[in-house]
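We recall that each integer encodes one residue's backbone shape. We quote one record:
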Amino acid sequence: MLYYNKKLRAYSQRLRKNMTDAEQRLWSYIRSRQLKSRLFYRQRIIGSYIVDFYCPAANLIIEIDGGQHYSISGIRKDENRDAYLKLLNLTVLRFSDHEVFINIKGVVEKIEEYL
């Protein structure tokens, strides 16, 4: 069982209710076990982080990166987060929000390949 920071629960719920357009688009392809019959959760709390999508059966996290992820501080935060998640034997696949919009089929194919 993964550590769960209860202080993030309300924020996680807000994020689920207010998903970005890119997150909504990808969610429409992976929800309800559409992808290789795997269950995905959205805005899941793992440790002190909230990940965009999590598939426990595959130890897979999918992150959709917007503009804030490409600043120097954003890159450092993502590196620290990815290192923590790797220690938990989780794999992180990152896609830009732009990639989700222009090549959703390619994004889904990459996820399927991993699964």
